[in-house]
Write a structure and sequence with these properties.
Layout: E1 9-13, E2 15-17, E3 24-26, H1 30-33, H2 35-39, E4 42-46, H3 56-62, E5 65-68, H4 93-108, E6 113-116, H5 118-126, E7 131-132, H6 152-155, E8 160-164, H7 169-174, E9 178-181, E10 188-189, E11 197-201, E12 207-211, E13 219-222, H8 234-254
The structure holds ligand LF53FM6H.
Length: about 260
């Protein structure tokens, strides 16, 4: 007898890394372990393969959620008509080639999307927006980059406050309008994409969260890292729980179960 799946399948995007002899697909484990708990889903790592090697339509048809991970690499600027990157900038064209169309297809199909750090940047670019490539060059913003002089856990400690848009998706999820978040990024959102709404900003005006209210399902991107530290608490836990709820609603709808949510 065929069993009915009870856990939503949540795609987790991987990065491609060229090795000396052979390529590697890699994803930091914290983006995988946050799926069973607190999201309540089953993680499926999505490899950053070459164009044409993944059938993205089939993939989207099987997914109940899409988690876009962070990464040291940056989206290639030609995707948003930006000026060429400075020499030495780390890119991952294979990942761009998978995630950018995948985001558009997932949103179109009503699959819930949660983007983290590089993930929020990919969401904005996929939806026609642009990125600041070096926010640390601005005179009037503070340094949002990862601290290199401290051990792993300290990198993910709260770095600054965010102010959420009153009545917005994130403020409703958080149940408040301010929070403290960590900060490990060098790029940031410049022009928001089509139908993209700013959900939170840092005190220096850097965009910290976006959503897409016109989407059929949950679409949220955050510039910080809600997946670390552990245990996941406060606003970070609430974000994963809200995403998980949307993924379960998608699973019920996909299976044609009676209590399927809108
Ligand atoms: N490269 C982009 C995105 C930053 C980002 O996603 N950092 C991840 C850090 C490592 C991790 O915890 O996964 C930028 O610099 O803005």
């Amino acid at each position: 007898m065929l069993s009915v799946p009870s856990l939503p399948l949540i795609g987790v995007t991987a990065c491609h890394q060229e090795g000396e002899d052979h390529s590697t697909q890699r994803v930091s484990e914290k983006y995988v372990t946050c799926v069973p708990e607190p999201t309540g889903g089953l993680p499926l790592i999505i490899p950053a393969l070459e164009e044409g090697q993944l059938d993205l339509d089939s993939l989207v048809a099987h997914l109940d959620g899409l988690l876009l991970t962070g990464s040291p690499s940056n989206v290639e600027p030609h995707h948003f008509n930006g000026p060429e990157s400075v020499e030495g900038t780390q890119h991952d064209p294979r990942r761009d080639g998978v995630t950018l169309p995948l985001i558009r297809k997932a949103i179109e199909a009503g699959v819930p999307v949660l983007g983290i750090c590089r993930g929020i940047q990919e969401m904005n670019v996929a939806l026609g927006g642009t990125l600041h490539q070096r926010i640390f060059d601005f005179d009037d913003t503070f340094d949002h980059r990862m601290r290199r002089d401290v051990e792993f856990d300290r990198k993910y400690r709260p770095a600054h406050e965010i102010r959420m848009t009153s009545g917005g998706l994130l403020a409703r999820i958080a149940g408040s309008e301010t929070a403290l978040v960590n900060s490990l990024h060098a790029q940031g959102i410049d022009k928001p994409g089509e139908n993209v709404v700013v959900e939170a900003v840092a005190p220096d005006g850097i965009v910290e969260a976006i959503s897409m209210p016109s989407a059929k399902a949950f679409v949220l991107g955050v510039q910080w890292h809600p997946e670390w530290p552990r245990p996941i608490e406060g606003i970070n836990r609430k974000i994963f729980e809200a995403f998980g709820e949307a993924c379960r609603a998608h699973l019920r709808a996909r299976l044609g179960l009676a209590d399927a949510a809108e």
